[in-house]
Amino acid sequence: MIHYLEMTPDHLPDVFHVRIQTWHHPHGAEELDSLGITPSAVRAMIQSTHRGWVAEADGRLVGFVIGNQETGEMWVIAVLKAWENQGIGRNLMRLVETWLASEGCQELWLTTDPDESYRAVGFYRHLGWEDWKMEDGDRYMRKRLFRPAHHPIQRS
Ligand SMILES: CC(C)(COP(=O)(O)OP(=O)(O)OC[C@H]1O[C@@H](n2cnc3c(N)ncnc32)[C@H](O)[C@@H]1OP(=O)(O)O)[C@@H](O)C(=O)NCCC(=O)NCCS
Fold this sequence. Notes:
Layout: E1 2-6, H1 12-21, H2 28-34, H3 39-46, E2 50-57, E3 60-68, E4 73-79, H4 88-102, E5 107-112, H5 119-126, E6 130-135, E7 138-144
Antiparallel strand pairs: 1-2, 2-3, 3-4, 5-7, 6-7
Bound molecules: coenzyme A.
Residues 22, 77-79, 84-90, 112, 119-120, 122-123, 126 line the site of coenzyme A.
């Protein structure tokens, strides 16, 4: 049974563990550090502009997602390999998208790997995200949550 909970600072050691385990090379810890993504930085984020959710199985954190309501960015999502393909990523994405929509974000965006073979790229496309642009070596994708209202032409 998977439980979904709002992320609190107490989750951050396990959140970092999951992100490092799911990094696309073995030096995730060093790379996060060099980007300034530390537990204390993320603590400050989830206490202000960001909000996250965790997925727990048997009391163990197996996945998480974090979004930024200030910019509409789906900042990060990760699910441990052993727990992939069971709908956890989809449920986490629904939680963050629903929250961002409730904050008034009309268009969400994310950055991911340019490599087409990256599992996350197919996952995002499958969940309705579209390719937007390539910039500074990153693939940007976006998702419009609200379509402009259709106003039929009034004929007199
Ligand atoms: C990307 C990731 C979050 C997906 O999590 P997950 O729990 O395996 O995803 P789900 O099982 O919820 O998949 C949801 C749907 O997407 C589909 N899907 C997943 N990967 C897919 C792919 N590469 N191509 C097409 N469809 C895909 C699933 O089949 C499922 O379809 P369904 O719900 O219609 O049956 C996970 O693989 C992961 O953490 N990867 C490593 C970390 C990472 O790359 N994070 C993103 C950094 S940019």
